[in-house]
# Entry
Amino acid sequence: MILLCYRKCRTCKSVQKEMDEKGLEYEVREIDLDNPSAEELQRWHEMSGLPLSRFYNSSGMKYRELGLAAKRKLISEEEQYELLATDGMLVKRPILLVEDRVYVGPDVKKYVEA
# Structure
């Protein structure tokens, strides 16, 4: 398992704590230091079956500063992957990669708690 997270995020910390308590083995990838590539984001989006909008950190400062609520609706999916790949802080977190499944945001906590 790979957990993409941000070390200052409360939700990420909570998920990591629960995973540790359950003895789950996982690798941590800090999303702000190791941005997902456009190719990774596209693959994860396709694997997840979620709308691409779920991969945006819509509560983040960067998202608001760039006016992405409106802008993302005007650009292609390929352009959105490229945009998300420019800054890990634009990407929703945590993201959990488990074999051929991808969990994003609150779905990670649900998976870990199950």
